[in-house]
Amino acid sequence: MTLATRATAAHPSGATPGADPAAYARELLVERLNRALRRPADLGGLPAVRSLLDRLAADAEDAEDAGAAAGTVWLADTNARLSDAALLRHCLTDPEVHVAAAQYAEDAHRLGWLRPDRTLPAAGHAALVEGVLEWARADRDGADVVAAYGPPSVTFGDPDPRRPKTLGYVGADGRGPLVSFHLGHAPGRSGPVLLAARIGEPGDSLFRSDGGSEFTPSGDALLDAEGQ
User: Fold this and answer.
1) Could you tell me where the beta strands, DSSP code E, fall in the chain?
2) pLDDT in tens, the chain (228 residues)
């Protein structure tokens, strides 16, 4: 089933200096962060993503309201991420920079800094969150993801369909979690296939999901191969 969609203003925002140069400078940082999340390899890699998150956190007028203290170091391997998220990065090889970029994007989304190319309506996103882990228990590929849920809100990594990447989906209300589909190579499969789906930490207590991830059979085969 294809979920209904709602378009949003694409980045960049078209912000101009106007009467508030500080706000303009901040929006430029947000736009650069969004470019770095999508194509980290082209814009300095994960260190560039972390640096931009640091600068935005330090620039927040009210660090407490922003959810982070000034000077925060945005490391994907902090204690808060030593669970299924760290497992995904460990098991997806080459290295899979787009996987970590998608996890940084969870922070950006929670803090209102992610600029999606497209969003799902609230009901459609809730249905995605509710059913995605069960849906991912079968082997899929990128075309299956798009057929089921439409074009992604954000593509992390090379958009070439022949390359590994992560497809991310967010809701129009901005309150629910980022849902990520990690595509990569697996033993015995030609071209990128879905290896795992992940529900990020919810940004709104109204969502029933507590996060989590599910590996497809191809993802499980990759795990077995890595363990040998």
Assistant:
1) 6-7, 118-119, 154-156, 165-169, 179-184, 193-199, 212-215
2) 334 444 444 445 555 666 677 788 889 999 999 999 999 988 888 888 888 988 888 776 544 554 554 455 554 444 344 344 555 555 555 557 888 899 889 889 988 899 999 999 999 999 999 999 999 999 999 999 999 999 999 999 999 988 999 999 999 998 899 999 999 988 777 789 999 999 987 544 333 345 688 999 988 888 777 655
Q: C-alpha distances in angstroms, 71 versus 63, 109, 161, 201?
A: 10, 19, 38, 22
**Residue 201 to residues 9, 27, 92, 208, 217, Cα–Cα distance (Å):** 25, 25, 20, 11, 24
> How long is the chain?
228
Q: Model pTM?
A: 0.80
CA dist 38 and 14 (Å) reads: 18
Q: How far apart are CA 63 and CA 66, in angstroms?
A: 5
Quick one: residue 139, left, alpha or beta (phi over 0 = left, psi -120 to 50 = alpha)?
beta
